[in-house]
Small ribosomal subunit biogenesis GTPase RsgA
Amino acid sequence: MGETTHGLIVKAMSGFYYVQCPEGLIECRARGVFRKRGQDLYVGDNASVELTAGGKGYVVAVDERRNFLVRPPLANLDQLVLVSSTCEPVPNLLVIDRMIAVAERKGIEPLLVFTKKDMADASPYARIYRHAGFAVAEVSNATGEGVDAVRAALTGRVSAFSGNSGVGKSSLLNRVDARLALPTAEISQKLGRGRHTTRHVELFALPEGGYVADTPGFSSLDLERCEPILKEDLAGCFREFADYVDGCRFTGCSHTKEKGCAVLEALARGDIEPTRHESYVSMWNQVMDLKEWELK
Ligand SMILES: Nc1nc2c(ncn2[C@@H]2O[C@H](COP(=O)(O)OP(=O)(O)OP(=O)(O)O)[C@@H](O)[C@H]2O)c(=O)[nH]1
Ligand SMILES: [Zn+2]
C-alpha cells in the first residue's frame, strides 16, 4: 500500500478528482468501493488519498459531510453568499428570507450582499438584515466600492454564491478575483450562448486563503428544492426569533397570531423586523401541512 495523505476535492471531471493536498494538487481516481456503494464524491469533500508512483492517487475515503448542496454538487460549505441587487431587479425579501432559511437549516452561514449601490441606495436593505443578525455587504460592481469587504469575508472560508439572474454574481466574483474571468451578461449576449450550462463546479483557491465555488449557478429554486423545511423547524431558521421562542405562553406556538406570543411582542416593540416576520408567516402558511413522510 502506498503512502496516504489528506486534502480537499477542488474539482471533479470525467471520473478524475483533483485533490488539494499538502503535497500539491493530486489527480486521483476513486476506489471502486465508492461505485459499489453508489456513493458520489463531491467537490468540497475532505478526502483521504493513497498516493501512487508518478504523483497520482486514489481517493480511498471521504470524511462525513457537514452539509451539501445538490445542484451543482458541493459539500462542506462554510458560507453561502446571497446576492441581491438594489434595483434591476429589485430584491424580493421573501426570496431572500427563504434562501437564508435554507442556509440556516444546513448550518451554512449566510452573507447578504446588495449590489448596484451606484444605482440605488442599499442601506434600507442592509439595515434590515444587520438588525436580524447577519453580515451584510453593500457593493457596486461598477465602481468596486464594497468589494474589499466581500473579499475579506471570503478569506479563510469555503463559500458559494447564490442569487437570481442579473443581480451581479458573476460581476462580483470577477471583482473579487479577476482570474475567475466569469462571463457576465454583456459577454454572453455577444457570444450568443447561455451561461453556466456546461460548467463543472470547481473550488477556486483565493490568494489570502479560502475557496470560492467558481460558479454563480445556485438559483433560489435549486436551493429550496434541496431543502424543504418542516413547520416545526421553521422558527429555528429565523435566528432573531431565538431569544423569544421560549417565552411564548403556549408550547407549540406558531408565532403567527397567538396571544402571549413573545415573538409577536418583540415584533410589536420593533425588535424583530416586520418584513422578516412577514416572510416567516408566508413560509409557515406554505409548509403548514407538510409532514415528514411527505418529504421522503
Ligand atoms: N451599475 C451596476 N451594474 C451592475 C452591477 N453588478 C452587475 N451589474 C450589471 O448587471 C448585469 C448582470 O450582471 P451579472 O454579473 O451578469 O449577473 P449574474 O447575477 O451573474 O447573472 P446570471 O449569470 O444570469 O445569474 C450586467 O449587465 C452587469 O454589468 C453593479 O453593482 N452596478
Ligand atoms: Zn410564539
In short: The longest helix spans residues 93-106. The chain has a mean pLDDT of 90. The domain at 69-224 is CATH 3.40.50.300 (Rossmann fold).
